[in-house]
Amino acid sequence: MIFFSILIALVLERVAPQLVDLKQNNWLREYSQWMISVLHIEKLAAWMALSVLIFPIMVLVWIAAGMFENALFGLFELAFDVAIIFFCLGPKELDSQVDTYLDAIEVGDSDQRFKAAGNIIRGEPLNEFPAQVIQVCKAIYVEANSRVFAVLFWFIVLGPVAAVVYRVLEQLLKTNALEDSLHSVKKIINLVLGWIDWVPTRLTLFIYMVSGNFEEGLQKFREDSGVAVDMLEQNNELLQNVGFHAIALHDVSTDSQAMDLVKKSRGLILRSLVVWLLLILMIAVLA
């Protein structure tokens, strides 16, 4: 059941872009505003405010999961799991964004390339072309983990509630959906997300190595001291560096070489996804 739920959700994300557009998280800011106006959570300690913010979402998903469990010979449960996974992925489909970036390089549109890079990179893209390509490639490894692999990991381990909580925390931090008065809560989310992302990040790193150049990736993992100031940043640095060294590196001075490097990065992600699916299938068969 779990394997088919994940497979269907992944296929839907790729073949139904009109559904992907529905995965908007604007409700999170309205939700945080409502919690402030009604429960005044900004007056609570940061840990308590985060608990109050997340708890109703956890309860709603838990109740819904219980209602659909084994309903109509498992069909409702399958549909519910597919919906949960689908809306927890992304929210944007990474492969399509990489395609847009490649198209911008191919046509030589620097403005479109900069915009497309901004949709992949967390932060401001670099203007210099070779440096920007490397920046995009490294961002792909981070985004694949946060948008897909970590969601799958927590869904398999702890079910729909864990997948939803992971995505909500990640979006609260990434999209600035929290009110300014909840700045202390944002720091706690950064801390919590760093810790709950630790295990899926290490598993993804191993899969990157297996799917690419294992020796180069492992060497980079061992020697990487990093300059991260917190756990979440350290996780992202490892994903960038290990993933980047797990592919065959080459010069990116021309457009064709740059496109080839981006395609290799995407290829590593696609192979890693296949490995993830095989692991999930093995778990489903042995469970």
How would you characterize this protein structure?
With about 290 residues, the protein is mostly helical. It has one domain. Helices cover about 80% and strands about 0% of the residues. It is built from 14 helices and no strands. α9 crosses α10 (about 185-195). The termini are close together. The relative contact order is 0.13.
In short:
This protein has helices spanning 2-15, 17-20, 26-39, 46-68, 75-88, 94-107, 110-120, 129-158, 160-174, 183-196, 198-211, 214-223, 231-245, 255-286. The chain is an all-alpha fold.
Write the layout of secondary structure elements.
Elements: H1 2-15, H2 17-20, H3 26-39, H4 46-68, H5 75-88, H6 94-107, H7 110-120, H8 129-158, H9 160-174, H10 183-196, H11 198-211, H12 214-223, H13 231-245, H14 255-286
Helix pairs in contact: 1-5, 1-14, 4-9, 4-10, 5-9, 6-7, 6-14, 8-9, 8-13, 8-14, 9-10, 10-13, 11-12, 11-13, 11-14, 12-13
Instruction: Bin the strand percentage.
Output: under 5%
Q: Would you identify the regions where 5 or more consecutive residues have pLDDT less than 50? A: none
Anisotropy-based shape: globular
Major sheet attributes: none
Q: In terms of structural class, how would the helical and strand content be classed?
A: mainly alpha
Number of strands: 0
**Tally of alpha and pi helices:** 14
Estimated helix fraction: over 70%
Radius of gyration: 20 Å
What's the domain count? 1
Order of helices and strands: HHHHHHHHHHHHHH
Mean pLDDT: 88
**What is the straight-line distance between the termini?**
11 Å
